[in-house]
Amino acid sequence: MDYNLDYAFPVDIGNFTKLVDIYHTTVPKDVMPVFRYRVGEELDYIRDNYSWLGDYIDYFVLYPGTSIGIHTDGYLGDSFRAVVCNIPIINPLKTFTSWYVMPDDTEWYDPWAIDREGGTSAYKNGISLWAKPEYKPLSVPFELETVEPIIFNTKKPHSIKNKGTAKRVMASWHTKFETYEQAREYFNITNR
After folding, report:
1. Is the residue at 113 inside a domain?
2. Of 61, 67, 126, 185, which sits 20 to 30 A from 163 (CA to CA)?
3. 1-14 pLDDT, tens per residue?
4. From CA 96, how far away is CA 116, in angstroms rounded?
């Protein structure tokens, strides 16, 4: 797979089968679309070798024929989910992440905000910005099936579509990187 390094790049995190076990034993079966898991000592065997991994994993469940619309994770300048390591857990084939170039005048909104004054959100105190549906992308510079762990640029507008016939589960492990550029520097990733 040729990656567009402005959006994502592959990374080795060793044996991640425990993440599959956590999904089967801990994540509620009716979760839609996300369940936040607090990492404990059961995953120290991974974090001991990859100290850049953070304290939370978001398990995203996407049913056949469904999608998560064009959005960014967090607000620009906010480190919430600034960079994640996306890890395929169940049925990654036929599920595509697409990144977009959006018009400069695109209006964005936070669909999960409950109380803007207090900063609470339905997304476990997280934040995201979604493009209003009337704004259409100018182009799609990169699209991929996540079939291996990747470092993911969450600040670029993106969407996820399950075009397959099976439920897809992705573990999205928060990292300690504050920006995608910081992650690229750490892994010595340069444009070819």
Report:
1. yes
2. 126
3. 799 999 999 999 99
4. 32
Residue 148 in contact with residue 92, Cβ under 8 Å? no
CB atoms within 10 A of CB 142: 19
DSSP code at position 179? S
With beta carbons less than 8 A apart as the criterion, state whether 11 and 173 touch.
no
Per residue in 30-67, pLDDT (tens digit) is 877 889 899 999 999 999 999 999 999 999 999 999 98
Residues 175 and 151 sit within 8 Å (Cβ to Cβ): yes
Which tokens hold the place of 172?
């999205």
What is the domain count for the chain?
A: 1
The strand pairing partners of 10, in sequence order, are 150
Domain of residue 34, residue span: 8-186
Whether 2 is in a domain gets the answer no
Does a structural domain hold residue 149?
Answer: yes
CATH of the domain at 103: 2.60.120
Chain-centroid distance of CA 92 in Å reads 14
Amino acid at 41: E
